[in-house]
Amino acid sequence: MIKTSILQRILCIICAFATLVTVNSCYYDDTDVRDSIKDLTERVEDLEKFMEQVSEDIESLNKLIEKLQSEVTIDNVVDNGDGYTVNFSDGTSITIYDGEDGEDGMNPPAITVVEEDGVYYWALEGENGIEYILDKDGNKIPVNGNAPQVRINDEGTWEISTDGGLTWEDTGMPAYGDGGTGGYVFNDVTEDDNYVYFTLRDGTVVKVPKTMDLSFSFGTDEDVLYFEAGESRTLDYQLSGASEVTITKPNGWRASIESEGFVITAPSADNVYAEKEGVVSVLVVSANGQSLAAEQGVAIAAPAPVLTLTSESEVSFPKDGGDVSITYAVENARENGVISAKSEASWLTFDTATPGRVLVTASANADDATRTAVVTVVYTYDGGKTVSFDVAVTQSMYDYEFDLPYLTGSYYGDDYSVNDGEMMYQLYLTNNEELWQYGGAYYWISILSGEPSDMNAIAPAVGTYTMSPSAGSDIAGMNTVIKSRDYTIAYVYPDASVGGTYYAAFFSWGELELTYENGEYHLDAVLTDTRNNTHHITYTGPIVCTNFAQPDEPDEPENPDAISLLTEDLTIDWPAGFLASAYYWGENRYAIDVRDNYSYDHSVQIEFYCSTAPSDNGGYLPGGSYTIADSKAVGTALVGTLTESTFGGVTLAGSWVYPRSAQSAYSGDAAPLVEGTVDIVQDGQNYTLTVNAVDDAGNKITVSAGFTANEYSVFDMTAW
Q1: What is the DSSP letter of 714?
Q2: Which of 323, 452, 488, 702 has the most CB atoms at less than 10 Å from its CB?
Q3: Do domains 215-300 and 306-395 have the same CATH topology?
């Protein structure tokens, strides 16, 4: 209210004018006086109306802040022409006046609010800037439902009361007069999709959220979230339209809405009273009384799954690509667990349909370089938790590529050389200690070099060996890989799980580099076979060749007309012998080599003629009785003879026995079989070999040997 004194003064003036006009109405024209009285009366009415509107605005600002701090939202704002009606979600409303439509010549008090840490305080904009409105004790007054009162004093300035009108303080701010800018407490109201913005006269903006549809989501599709003991998980929850949120949880668990998200924490392992599983519930209520409930199952999981790689951590593909299986095992598997595989390499694809196996498929390598990749196998469980392992993948630029771990060597001196001084070394490399196994690779590589530098550690000289197009070394030197189907050859066996036959490779061109460092040899060979496939073979380790070279001047046999070097009868009994090799050369011709162990000592070689091919016997070696004779007739075992080698020297042909050899399988105490019988008895995969024969020196030779063979033991050489 305006002070009574100023109203009284104005009313007295009005009354005085009225009396004067009445007394002198007969003698005086009172039109101007009456107009003045009317103007003054209208001014008083406008001033009272302005003061009331300003007071309403201050109360509206008070309620607006109160709603904001109570999390009440705004349903809508209605433009009334001279102001706005603001409708809240709790069903209440306020009215504010448009600051642009204020009375000219009048000024509202510059009341505003200041926000500190979420709390709003009343303030004034004065000559020195924004100043807090203080109570009688000098404390800042929070906006908490009690708005300051205002009035215009005798001097026409605004006064403020913070104690309900008991005391008033002059602000010194003029309420009217020349230069008044008009306007109210609120200067502007704007809005967007989410908020309504109230701009006060001093530029302060109060932002109040709009009412949204009531909704809540935990942000996960999992029916049950599994936790390790003591684990915390933050969910990307969604919440709108709520003025109140109530959370319930199982005993021992924690659940709360934090700035980073909806946080759920499982009880620690030593909390024996905590519930192991249950439901986290959220009840949300809007300002208008609507409610919505949501639930999320939680549980302490069994021991975490363990994903273990059960195959090799490195796999390789040939140039043409193909399939490789990566095997794995999962301990503590979850019902919701899923296996997947991924790689940045676009040339790899995966099939995880078979439990315990990831089938990796590589496309053909069209590059001129070996390419590599990493395959990550992932087990995903409990709504996004993962365990994984990596497997390194290499795809060769070669058709066949092997890093072979096993090497044995033989040294034959110049027994098979075309040129004097050419020494032959034969290196046998394999990736499988158990010979002739499916999935294995076996390479014989023969090279010509000079004499060994150390006869106690025989190895070819280091250097580069180039495969010659001829059967011997080049003229310029002896560092040459021999080109020969008999001496440089490879057998590559497919995986047993897919069946098939071995791949035999005969080499035509290539290069082998042999180096020696830190006590180890390193062999690196790239060879091209007759089918134009490239083979890359590497080996690192020792090279020690067994000396099988013939003596330069062998001792003369006691019987100069006999080839045999035996001096007495010989009896051999090998109940658990070893089938070292078995070949079918076509045209009824077989050759077998039976030994008591895998070495070049103690072996029996039989070359015989049978009426059946391996295919007639399921691929197995046939049985039968054979008479030793110089004949190729069916039922004959061929007499042992010496044959001139293609590379010089001699080789053994026909049927022979080598009971003991200090140097070579083709020398020493070898004896040809010239008369007698050979019996081969088959019982499934079990065989018995019986030989009753004499050699060309008249020594009686008796052999009884047992061995096993399967349908893959006989090499079919008819295509060679």
Answers
A1: S
A2: 488
A3: yes
